[in-house]
């Protein structure tokens, strides 16, 4: 996060554009959590402005990702596409696609990149995707921004415990995932 905060601070009048560019890059890559940019935006711009900037950046990132994925990955079929919700989204369009994207955006455990790619590989139009994403990202981003603010205010001891907890969960997940693959 310090790297991103320093990049924003050193960008002067272009700091907003740099923040949005970071969000677009993270969205296109699809596997890096946006929480680091949200934290940097809140640190540099304050809670309200940082939240608004993160929201604009995430929406722009989702739209650019959708467009790029639609242009470049039409023949790409990753393993996660076998999830029943993802398969439903891929086959849906119009009003049904809007609600599917909105509901998937509200679920915190589904990565944004998965939703972007799946929607791009579906019959969903850009306007439908954009509207559902704009509405669906707001509650998740509010919760993320609030959580980031609380962590930033926490003592160093609390932060260390949180990092260790995240590492333990990641290690457990990694070992369980590899154990299940061997079956």
What can you tell me about this protein's structure?
The protein is mainly α. 79% of the residues lie in helices and 0% in strands. Helix 1 runs antiparallel to helix 2. It is globular. The termini are far apart.
Helical run tally: 9
Rounded to an integer in angstroms, the radius of gyration calculated over CA atoms is 18 Å
Name the poorly predicted regions: none
So what's the overall shape?
globular
Percent strand equals under 5%
Largest sheet: none
Please report the total strand number as a whole number: 0
Could you tell me the mean pLDDT?
86
Spatial gap, N to C terminus: 38 Å
Query: How much helical structure, as a percent, in the residues?
Result: over 70%
Helix/strand order, N-terminal first = HHHHHHHHH
Q: Structural class, judged by helices and strands?
A: mainly alpha
Jot down its keywords.
single chain; 183 residues; mainly alpha; 9 helices; 79% helix; globular
Task: Give a short summary of the structure.
This protein is mostly helical. The chain contains 9 helices and no strands.
Element layout with pairings:
Elements: H1 2-10, H2 15-29, H3 35-45, H4 47-72, H5 84-91, H6 94-106, H7 112-120, H8 126-153, H9 156-181
Helix pairs in contact: 1-2, 1-3, 2-4, 3-4, 3-8, 4-7, 4-8, 5-6, 5-7, 6-8
